[in-house]
Amino acid sequence: MKRILYLIVIILIAIFTISFTLLNSQPVTVSYYFGRYEVDLLVVIVICFTLGAVVGVFSVLGKMFSLKHEVIKKEKEIRITEKEVENLRSLPLKDER
Fold first, then answer.
1. Which of 40, 39, 38, 42 minimizes the C-alpha distance to 21?
2. Are 39 and 28 in contact (CB under 8 A)?
3. Residues near 25 by beta carbon (within 8 Å), at least 6 away in sequence
4. By residue range, what is the domain housing residue 18?
5. Which of 36, 40, 47, 90 has its CA 20 to 30 A from that of 64?
6. The predicted structure's pLDDT at residue 73
7. Distances (CA, A) of 8 to 12, 32, 93
């Protein structure tokens, strides 16, 4: 269900971006450090949208990898604890009389 919601949001953003760029298709001048380049506003908007998405993905990757590492570490701790519990269960009980 969560993936479907994400997919719907992505599709809505893409539709909004495409309709916005089609409404703004006049040429603009893009100035670089070494010159100028004239290109449609459509191209500039699509490039900026794409770069923003790429930067967003890379900004999340670091946190995602650290969380994945933490999950692996916790799973290892769980396995060790389960072994300890299993060993304690297999020990015979002694009466202290």
1. 42
2. yes
3. 40, 41, 42
4. 2-89
5. 47
6. 96
7. 6, 36, 59
pLDDT at 22 over 90: no
* Residues 19-27, mean pLDDT to the nearest whole number: 81
Q: How far apart are CA 82 and CA 52, in angstroms?
A: 45
Residue 97 lies in a domain: no
Number of domains in the chain: 1
Interval 33-75: pLDDT, tens: 888 989 888 788 778 889 999 999 998 998 999 999 999 999 9
Q: Is 94 part of a structural domain of the chain?
A: no
Query: With left for phi above 0 and alpha for psi between -120 and 50, is residue 35 left, alpha or beta?
Result: left
